[in-house]
């Protein structure tokens, strides 16, 4: 074993190098450095194999079994099975072993298949060919054999096989263009740079002569962070050191574009690549239904233990009489007499546990798994959620949370790209207070297309022309836009033609493209970046060349970017563009007030604004700037901090030029979707990084805020004027006073005076609110903030960092009501809140696919959220809640007669049912009808669910799985079990004979009870079904038919594999008796009657909104007209509606609805 790394680590720490940064040295082409340069220490790195699978061929069985038996239900049944094997129990081990084997096998097959698919995907990646330079020649290898230090050649449209440092490119300037859509989802082209000293190595032979080493940090998952240094050994003794940053690092999974080929060296391979390190496992999300199931399971476990204890105690009370303990026909052996009473009692207790263990439904878990897995396809198959523009429909990344879509109380949404299209259009710019609108007003002249626009005096006046052109040049130079010189459209290549640029602009930011295109419409065209020179074409069609010296890239902390360029006359300029809050404080001259007024005006209109400023640099100042930047870039430790300090000192003392305004339009039907969510009782919060005015305008446009909404501000501006403590208490008093006085009217929905509150908070104030208090009392503002938010119908959080978005979601999740939250976004900055929320939804937007990949569900557009929640979510919840309650109900019906039977057999653990019936009850006789119900039930037409969002409130807060409903189902099961048992018992109290004079025995009695049981629970489900299709009929009646056929075969044939056949001819004998037929029919009717009566009375006297609509739908057997007001259905009276003959409704029949309608129609 190699302990060199450990020894190295200890020696460094013992030497006192506290600030030592763990790094690696990579030898390019595996060449040793020249003698005397540095010690050659070969290091071990993993190969390039990617492993996303969970199991191997050898560990699948033990590992999968271990994971499955970690589930409480599976482990419980395993214990029961082992008890049956160890002690003498009343039922065969097969009765619990077979269902357990079935559940374990089905789950193992599913998980094994999924892992096999992962193995296939891994193999296809690991075996794909890569081209490596060895001894000046190109060698083809499998990807998995790639090693750190190998020099790789990658051609256009190929994917990078590992993390690489760019050495050289087929482009003269040493750049290459890359798309990182598979990593961060951004489909735009990004520029990466080769080191200046290696970009000349353009052939295999030249690359092979390169002597260099790379020192860089050890692998870490941040895609946008990389710190390294390359040492190039030329003829001189000392190597040339150059800094390496994220602009030199090509990530595995990214694709080369618009570049013929590149040469690069592998530095991170296999599971150490940044893409592999980002395969972090998401935290397991559990739905409210699953939590309810587990709570019910514990209750039933307690019931089971109670039953076993009661029977054990009563057995020994019964056996206190020696004649009962040892009757003459069943005397104990000497061994049995000598056993200690406690051991006998414990063995009996275990035997009763085994006898009653079927009350815990093991098959419920596999049915729920199948229901979720199969049910998730309904979202994928939904044509209404298919987007023609993208050519994609909705995706389900996890099926475990389907029913949670029907329980959402809070919706947290991003703004840009989620509510808006993220399709930027340049609207106007303002230079020194003069407004310029493309194709309308330019340089004081009215341009084509301005007929319908207001006249804006934009004459720059004397001396303004120079500033105006400098502003246009700044926007043509201060960006990272690339020009795609050849774009194929309909098979025709188009490019720069006759000096006029008809090329296509591509950038990682749609804002930048909009600004460059806007300048083009105003007369200044950006042409290309060639040999580190940027070319622009001015209004006079003259080509101007500027040498690009430095780019100070945009980051979300600074919120600005800058470039340093040198004009053809030798002047140095620093141009900067950024958010107003990032530029205005750094300006020392310019018409600040006029520009600020225009920026605020545009922000209120909902436009995205940027400010533009510049300063001239003297050659000495430029040299100082270069020194600052190079020393910061070469640092291996704290490079980002040093760069930030350098940028801060460089980007100062600007002269303000002007500002731009870009529009990001609202998505189609975004306002309608938000309005529907409000009506459904959900609170919608918008979390955005945009400035307050822009975000507020979007909120008004999307109907998040209405015109009568009273806006409460909790912003930095207000907290500067007033203490945060005072602001919070003022807002709290405002909302609570209004809430307290209006509660009754609000609930009735009749108040016109009720104030609708909306809250606006910014990131800085949120940090202050969430900061833990230093004082012991009165300083914790979280609760006050939450109280204010609870009483606001909508909240806007602006200037939010990605982490703050997740903090907000976490805060609401942890509040005392524990509401179900949903987060929806489209960008990488939304991933944290998507992972934090109970349900995360990603939008397949222009900001890429990272949000969609990390989400639980992905949809093409925000408008699809309406159907996903109001229709799919509603159906999923209704279906699974019935499934859970029904499973517990049918198992109570199944086992309670067994409990009662012990009172009539001397607590001897005699089973009431045959072994085959015990085994197949949950697997075959009653499983398919409830599975199909849970997949297909539609209690209300989906068009009505979409048109009337208030129906969503009927199922809110897990209303169908509350304790009163659970207790009702349990008592219903107990009642039905009592009817089955005592009904059969009293009907055959007088010994009944068949036609040939034979008496009914205990197996006939048990079979009679079991027959009534199967028919009752199946017909109970049939009565609850509203949506009938041929499949429902086939499965429900087919299950009953299967039970009858199985019973006839099981008792009608002598099976050679059975030691004894106690059921031989029992079923046929029972059916040959007329009283048996009569008792079956009578007991089924009596069992079902109370539930039917209760439902009919509740529907007739206290109907819910859902039930009124169901009754109406059944009464008139038609769709509601598209123009029908649904408010008529909320009132007790109904109006006759004309059936829609063109679009007849699916058949919805429910006997309880029909009875309730008849009762209503005949009630005076």
Automatic annotation (TrEMBL):
The protein's topology relative to the membrane is: Multi-pass membrane protein
Q: What Gene Ontology biological process does one annotation of this record name?
A: positive regulation of myotube differentiation
**Taxonomy, superkingdom:** Eukaryota
Q: Does the keyword Transcription regulation apply?
A: no
Alphabetically sorted, this entry's keywords are: ATP-binding, Cell membrane, Endoplasmic reticulum, Endosome, Lipid transport, Magnesium, Membrane, Metal-binding, Nucleotide-binding, Phosphoprotein, Translocase, Transmembrane, Transmembrane helix, Transport
Instruction: State which residue ranges cross the membrane.
Output: 72-87, 295-318, 349-368, 916-936, 966-988, 1000-1022, 1034-1058, 1064-1089
Q: Which residues form the P-type ATPase C-terminal domain?
A: 852-1104
Name the UniProt record assigns to this protein: Phospholipid-transporting ATPase
Naturally occurring in which organism (per UniProt): Denticeps clupeoides
Q: Which gene encodes it?
A: ATP11A
